[in-house]
Amino acid sequence: MSQTAHIPSHRKPRRSASKLALRAGVAGGVLSTIAVAGAAGPANAEPVTETIEMPTLGALDTGLASAVSASAEASQQEALDLSLQAQEKAALEKAAKDAKKAKAEADRKAEAEKAEKAEKARAEARERASRTQTRTTLSASSSDSSSSSGGDSSYDSGSEAPTGSAAAIVAFARAQVGDAYVSGGTGPNSWDCSGLVQAAYRQAGIDLPRVSSSQSSMGTSVSLSDLQPGDILYWGSRSGSYHVAIYVGGGNYVGAQNPSTGVVERSLDWDTPSGAVRIL
């Protein structure tokens, strides 16, 4: 066994080279500053007696740690800000995209509704043109019948054949079948009951009062079993009728019934009138 084996070592622990260099640098810098100051001062300057306390390595380590921590927090906050900005940008882009899509859908629906309305208007115009042409043809036929010497015209609904003024009245009334019923309507495409009767008689050059009760009070009363085309049918009392229509022959009449049916041709059995008057 070695004789020095139990002798404890008095050698101080070896410090790391980096720490020794740091301490040496700090101490050297301080001493150099003092030396320069002394050399620059006056020759008779008093010796420096003030003790200068040099920073320790512990204080330097604490400051460095604080700086690193602050830098890390700043980097984390910057990353958070960038993330929020990215989320806001994505939300704005999505909102703009949704708004553009909604506008496109609204424009598409508006165009579809516009096209549908235009097609409906064209269909109504074609229907009106067709009715006008039919009325013109019937009016011409009625005029021919009126100017003849009372010759019969064909009538496929019964044995009676309207002639003269009656033919013009019946032709006009039948030409309005399918038109709408509107209270107070006097044509050309919508009627109420007395407005249609008044307009039909005007084709024969006869002016009638406007309301049904006055129309049924004119002319002479006739039996429902002795009707002729052109007679005015009424519902209610003769002087207080609430509805009128025109007998067109063959047991049928034409009248502006109500808003749900409009102008129709019906059998007397469908709604038997209260009476009739003859003006022709």
Q: How would you describe this protein?
A:
The structure is a single chain. Helix 2 (57-147) packs antiparallel against helix 3 (164-175) and helix 3 (164-175) packs across helix 4. This protein has a domain at 81-150 and 158-280: endopeptidase domain like (from Nostoc punctiforme) (endopeptidase fold (from Nostoc punctiforme)). With 280 residues, it is α+β, with helices and mostly antiparallel strands. Helix content is 50%, strand content 14%.
Unreliable residue runs: 33-41, 141-159
- The CATH topology annotation of the domain at 81-150 and 158-280 reads as endopeptidase fold (from Nostoc punctiforme)
The total of helices stands at 5
Assess the beta-strand content as a share of residues: 5-15%
Main β-sheet: number of strands, strand sense, barrel status? 6 strands, antiparallel
Give the class-level CATH name of the domain at 81-150 and 158-280: Alpha Beta
Report the mean per-residue pLDDT as an integer: 76
Query: Gap between N and C termini, in Å?
Result: 163 Å
Task: Explain briefly what this protein structure is.
This protein is an alpha+beta fold.
What does the secondary structure layout of this molecule look like, with pairings?
Blueprint: H1 17-40, H2 57-147, H3 164-175, E1 180-181, E2 190-191, H4 193-202, H5 212-215, E3 220-222, E4 232-236, E5 241-249, E6 252-258, E7 262-267, E8 275-278
Parallel strand pairs: 1-2
Antiparallel strand pairs: 3-8, 4-5, 4-8, 5-6, 6-7
